[in-house]
Amino acid sequence: xxxFTFSGDTTVRDTLHNFPQTRPVxxxxxxxxxxxxxxxxxxxxxFSQRHNVDLEQLINELEDxxxxxxxxEAADG
Length: 77
Prior knowledge:
The chain starts with 11 loop residues before the first helix and ends with a helix. The longest helix has 22 residues. It is an all-alpha fold. The radius of gyration is 12 Å and the shape is globular. The chain has one domain. It has 5 helices and no strands.
């Protein structure tokens, strides 16, 4: 499977909806419980700025999280 590429315009809501395994990344950077329950439709760029995390770092961690999930499933199959 090809690696999914996130961008600064990808929303937090879409990311969590399509890739629920990324939740720990958002939690690590301080996503509040309300936003965790109902993810906001804000871009990753906004989240990174608001939570004082480098956008490139955030995107890399999200992509790594998705890649790790795929590798685990492939190993099980």
